[in-house]
Amino acid sequence: MSESSLRLVWIYPDLLSTYGDQGNALVVERRARQRGLDVTRLDVRSDQPLPTSGDIYLIGGGEDRPQRLAAERLRRDGGLSRAVADGAAVFAVCAGYQILGHEFVNDLGEREAGLGVLDVVSTRSGDQRCVGDLLADIDGTLGLPPLTGFENHQGITRLGAGAKPFARVRFGHGNGSGDGTEGAYSGNVFGTYMHGPVLARNPLIADLLLKLALEVDTLPPTDDRWYEALREERIAAATQSA
Amino acid sequence: MSGNTEPLSPRAKLAVTAGRAAAAVSRAAGRGSGSVIGGKVALRLDPDLLARVAQHLDVVLVSATNGKTTTTRLIAEALRASGPVVSNALGANMPAGITSALAGGSDAKYGVIEVDEKYLAGVARDVTPKAIALLNLSRDQLDRAGETRMLAEKWREGLAGNKAITIANCDDPLIVWAASSSPNVIWVAAGQEWKDDAWSCPSCGGVLQRPDDDWLCADCGFRRPAPSWALSGDSVLDPHGSAWPIRLQLPGRANKANATTSAAVAAVFGVPPQVALERMYDVQAVAGRYDVISFQGRELRLLLAKNPAGWLETFSLIEPPPAPVILSVNARPADGTDTSWLWDVDYPRLAGHPILVIGERKLDLAVRLEVAGLDFRVCETAEEAVRQAPPGRIEVIANYTAFQDLRRRVGN
Ligand SMILES: [Zn+2]
């Protein structure tokens, strides 16, 4: 951690905040404060320079045109790549996940360069949109309970050798590449197709980001009964709809 | 178009009759008002029917993400000052429902029609309206409707060259983008409390600057047009600079904005603002919204909020703490099956209110309120929530199907 206060950076809410993405920032902030941490939240608009000294960066989802504009501005800015090189934790959702990769297909149907901080390449599915509740088992080395989320995307993401699948799908679509994977991670950089406020259903992922930022192995416990009740309900829903 | 009394063709007459019969059957079978089913049968028989049933009417179309049902009602009341009105007052706002509503108004002079956002361009082409009122556009049921800006783009293409007078909110950049292809626009400063769908320039994608109530794009010059009508505090300012106080029974800033737009529309039809506003004051509730009812010995006010912008406007009109608040959220297909929008709603504004949570997605709401640091209680039923609520009139805020459930439950 670079300063006495945990610096939480929410990237481009003017472009990438279509599906309640603010929820992830609110959950991380809340869970940090519940542990007595001082948090500085920086909401950085796409006409502002991205600070490179953040501890945790969150990047949300968005429609096709805002995604292209965000990628253009993040490439030009360069700050996120520097922050990743310095070991910052990054958690990205949907359009943001694709932007972290080498390339994706933009609103004009062209290949658009991403930031290349995750070894993934995204394309677009011609036929169906993946919509609904998903349930997946998170990579065992991360020590997290199953991932529950809502997906709504047309993307297909394929992982290179430098990225590990974040989770293995039990119900739902995930990366859509047919290999049963969902999301990707590498070091402290995470991407998922679970859109919007995915941390509200998976508060222990928020805690993982805090642990990585603080460089600690454990955090004081919190009262998670509402999160747990919601998880139980949504996991049952994903199981039944399949 | 008014005064054109050319009779319906036999085919159109048959279609209307078949539609009415189907509607009657639907009503008898207990399937709601029957207006949609009637319209669907009629449209299947004669695809030009919508154009035909509108032919003898001076039509105004009303579309928006929020406030279209209420504004349709206010405009209808205002225009009744000048002649009989037919309107889809029950909110059946897709082509079948509209056809069915218009078919029931053979003696009417005016058609005041609420149109679902997705159908506006097509209906505007079919019915040759005299006026089109556009109030606001923001995120709503995203897993069904698609991107808000794409919708604005469709309106823009659909309205290009339409001869109707467009009455549009100059404070909403997406509305301005959509309306400015129309050759004849009257701008109304109706305000915009929810701004999170309008930080990005609809024209070029630049970041909009928003000093005070103004907005502009420094990259391409797209900017707020000067209004000729405005909501100013509690008054309507007309193009001559006269201020007309608004004394609605309907609560809230958003309804004052709806009244301002309605007054501008009424003026297009020759009804002066004073007359138009007077008639709007008679409206107490619109399709159950804003109704105060009695249930289990308590007073409840029923408020509908379907999306983040709607919730924001609703929070600004409820009684201050310690008024108890019941929140109810469902996520059925008609609501949008995704609850992520809860995180775009500014729930911290409920701090200080006793909060009771019900509805099929009460656990999503519970986590949202927990993260907002609010005190709340989760209840299984409306009855339990009402029993648990501390004294005082209860403000009940619900999204679409949750609102319908509540109305049935409390006998409204
Ligand atoms: Zn611009």
* Gyration radius from CA atoms of chain A, angstroms: 17 Å
**What is the correct CATH architecture of chain A?**
3-Layer(aba) Sandwich
Give the helix proportion of chain A (percent range). 25-40%
- Biggest sheet architecture of chain B: 9 strands, mixed
Number of strands of chain A: 13
Number of discrete helical segments of chain B: 15
Percentage of β-strand residues of chain B = 15-25%
SSE order of chain A, one letter for each helix or strand: EHEEHHEHEEEEEEEEEHHH
Number of helices of chain A: 7
Level-1 CATH class name of chain A? Alpha Beta
Task: Identify the strand order in the major beta sheet of chain B.
Answer: 2-3-1-4-5-6-9-10-11
Measured by DSSP, the beta-strand proportion of chain A falls in 25-35%
- Please state the average pLDDT score of chain B: 90
Q: Looking at the chains present, what oligomeric state does this protein adopt?
A: heterodimer
Question: Could you write a compact summary of the structure shown?
Answer:
The complex is a heterodimer of chains A (242) and B (412). Chain A has 242 residues and is of the alpha/beta class. Chain A has 7 helices and 13 strands.
